[in-house]
Amino acid sequence: MDSAAPYLTHGSDDTAAGQVLGLVTGLVEAADWVYGHWYLLALVIAVCWGTGEWGLRRLAAKASTQRMALELVTTRHFDPSLEEIFRRGVQLARASTAMPWWAPRRAKAVQIRLRADGSAPLRYRIEGPAGGERLLSITPFGPDVTIQRARPIVDTPRAHTVRAEFILRGKLIAPLREVPLAPDPLQPLVDAVADLRAELGDLAEIRLDIQRAPKWALRARRLQLMGAARRSERREAQRAARWLRQDASGIDDSLGWQLQQLLTDKPGSGTGRRLVMPPAPRRVEPAEALGKLAEDDHLVRVQLLVMCASNTEGRAQARLAQVQAALDVFGGRSRWAMRGWRLGPWRIGADHWPTRKGFQRRWDLGHCQPPRANWVRLEELTGLLKPPTVHCRLPVLAADLPTFTFGDPQLLLQGIYRGPDGRERLVATYTEETLFEVGVGKAGGGKTERALAQAIGWAHAGGGLVFVDPHRDSWPRALPFLAHDHLMPRIALIDLNGLGAHPKVSSWNPLGMHHGQAPHEVVEAIADAYASALSWDDATAPRALTILTAALTVLVAINQAACQAGQPEAQATIFHVRALLTDAGFRAAALAAVADRLDEESRAWWQSVFPTLPPDAFAVVLNPIARLAANPVTRAFLGQPAGVYNIRAAMDSRMIVWVCPGGNGPTDRLLTALLARDLLRAARSRRDTPEHKRVPFRPYFDELITLTGAAPETIAAMFEDLRKYKCHVHGMTQLLSRLPTPVRLSLVQNASTLATTAGSKSAITPITAEWGDDPSPERVATMERFEHYVSMNVHGRRVGPVRLRGPHLDDVFAAQARPQQAGALERAAQANAQAFPLETLTDRATKQLRQVAAFLTAHTPAGAAAVRLSKENEWN
User: Fold this and answer.
1) Cys-Cys link to 278, which of 193, 241, 548, 615 (CB 3.0-4.6 A)?
2) What's the pLDDT tens digit per position in 820-860?
3) Burial class (CB in 10 A: 0-12, 13-18, 19+), 141
């Protein structure tokens, strides 16, 4: 038994060794088989990977259908703080996870889309999981940002498209450059797309996907960075030790060292070499090695994709280069760089195989598969987490401010805009939105030239207007550009300057009833014009207003009777007020003829109150009329019974009327007040026409200081009321401060377009104050001649103030100039206004009193004639 034990132990060892040897042999054979059939293993791995990737893509595509889009629209005063922007970034990061549990990580992202396609300088959209809509709809930016549900964008294919993906290069653990909020960090991107031309199919879009970082990926990245830092430190230590040994060996072998050893008397000092201690590797600090990845808070992964397109070859490539340069603003020790490889003049990137298909899938479905290097903190994305702010200078696109097209009745010329690319275009506003317009600036600055260009363009488009110019300079300036055959029948000239050896004058009877006016409206218009020009009111001149109103009531009744009798040439004029008040015979005949047309109160006033008035009570009423009669031009213009001037008919028939009062003296101010009040009356009388049938009409008032000096309340009422009647006023003045307070307040409050040229700071400040001093008065004051800052209303929102160059007629309408037909237009305009020689009209005005008296005698009832004679005897 004892002798058999060693054999049994030896057999057991042999069996165990055989098993181990068999196992090793099996492993070797398996490895050899795998080596010989590696393609099978690769195929299995590829099939497993492909199946998994296919499943992930299907799930991610399904998850992408549960996405929503929001568009952020800001006001011009949007100015968020850093804290508000950071909070928005936290919301975006949190919303990126609002997906079903089964959704792959690539579908869990929020996308910021910065898009320029011609509809806006830079549209700002946010797309993300539908479950995060409630979170994303609550913005920390306050009321200056409106969030609205956005519709899907469908792009038409362009002929040329370029794509690019940007990754972080440089020192990846270092943050991007901290860009200040003023100027706006988005300004370089806005400038990169500022010269985009929608008519050429230009398109540029930047998409930034934000995804919360998975913990395992962050830990793996940290381990990788720490390992790399330790290896780098060890290499540095080895390199330092190697150089140290080389330095020590060099010293030992040097001649100086050997001489030193021979001369020294210390025993054993020359034997052996010195001992060199290599430096130990420095301890790696996690904060230094990990940089911005050291902390977990607010760390996200990002994907930055860019696509540019155009129908013109080369423009998309140039646009991508501009966007790339704009992203350089964010670069520091870490920077955005285009992903791909460059081989000489060729670049292999997102536009080429094999990455193009993956890029397009991520672009279409909104999937986020960022490179390993794209780790950022929310603070680094400050400039991209908000829409453009007040500190961003936005270009004016054709979608913001339409381009003027000659002959288009929907557009009103405003000026010449010079784009960021140096191209100039005529810009306009829409006529239906340009309700009132105000132009301010020093003399010779171009405000009248701009108004003339606008009026001429409107006239050629078929619009009606009246241009009131106290100085008459605008008429000869506009004459060559209006001298077209199709315009001549619509143009009328009311020139009261009496120029030339044989001047011709048109005619107007403010009291005339042959145009079908309402009697009480005519009386009210003339009385109000008197009161405005002479500063009358119920407190300072109640008796004068009463006398004038009573006289006008009688004269209007006479004219109404004459028109009904078919004798409009027998109508009384404003100069017959003197006869009515001072000539007892004429007065008695007039009262007898219209007794049945006056109400009981008016008859009672003439019977009981008028006889008690002293003769000097009439002087304050008759003195202005006497001044009008003393001027042969105004006497001829106002002294005709059936005047031609009818501003209501001009409104409805799209006439082009040029009115040139003779000056700005007291007499001229009264005439201007009469014209202005008649315009207000005529516009208000359009209430008898349905709104959709009212023809738009545009009065242009040059030198508002002169005009408002005569009729301040009337001009103010125009800026307040005439919009309802499609009568849109344009006013020009040198100084707002010189205008009466009611006019100034109404004018600025209701102006759809506000424009100013250069001038003194004190004159410009009231305008720039309306714009929040942006631009500043100093900048506006130093503009060149014919330059304007203009704010306009387009599509219900304010555009500007935009710097425009005023349109010069000789440049803008050079093709419409017909100087050889200017004489023909002058004659046609006078013929349309039925202008006659001054002597002829003066003679008619002189004879008009006898003609009216004859009409009264012929149309006075017999019974009333006896009463009239008794009254004459009583009053005399």
Assistant:
1) 241
2) 999 999 999 999 999 999 889 988 888 888 888 888 888 77
3) buried
State the number of CA atoms in the 13 A half-sphere of 459 facing the CB: 32
- CB-based contacts of 323: which residues, under 8 Å, 6+ apart? 189, 192, 193, 204, 206, 306, 308
- State how far the alpha carbon of 754 is from the alpha carbons of 409, 676, 770, 787, in Å: 21, 22, 9, 14
CA count, 13 A, side-chain hemisphere, 76: 11
Buried-state track 595-612, b at ≥16 Cβ within 10 A, e below 16: bebbeeebeebbeeebee
> Read out DSSP for 664-700?
SSHHHHHHHHHHHHHHHHHHHGGGGS-GGGPPPEEEE
Reading the block at residue 426, the tokens are 């005529």
CA distance 523 to 556: 7
Distance, CA of 222 to chain centre: 49
Closest CA to 638 of 848, 394, 876: 848
- Cis amide bond preceding 402, omega within 30: no
Q: How would you class 292 by CB atoms within 10 Å of its CB: exposed for 0-12, middle for 13-18, buried for 19 or more?
A: middle
How far, in Å, are 190, 430, 793 from residue 796 at the CA level?
23, 10, 6
Residues 248-286 have pLDDT tens digits of: 666 665 666 666 666 665 554 544 555 556 666 677 777
CA distance 612 to 618: 12
CB 370 within 8 A of CB 300: no
Find, among 179, 68, 165, 201, the residue nearest to 125 by Cα. Answer: 68
Count CB atoms within 10 A of the CB of residue 737: 12
Residues 554-607 pLDDT 10s: 999 999 989 988 888 989 999 999 988 888 888 888 888 888 888 888 888 888
User: Taking the chain, what is the end-to-end CA distance rounded to the nearest angstrom?
Assistant: 179
CA distance 657 to 321: 55
Between CA 611 and CA 617 the distance in angstroms is 12
ω before 387 within 30° of 0 (cis)? no
- Largest interatomic CA distance in the chain: 182
Alpha-carbon gap, residue 864 to 21, rounded angstroms: 151
**8 Å CB contact between 407 and 461:** yes
What are the backbone dihedrals phi and psi of residue 747, each rounded to the nearest 5 degrees, phi first? -65, -50
Pairwise CA distance, residues 418 & 494, whole Å: 38
Cis peptide before 801 (omega within 30 of 0): yes
Q: How far is CA 776 from CA 240, 764, 783, in A?
A: 62, 9, 11
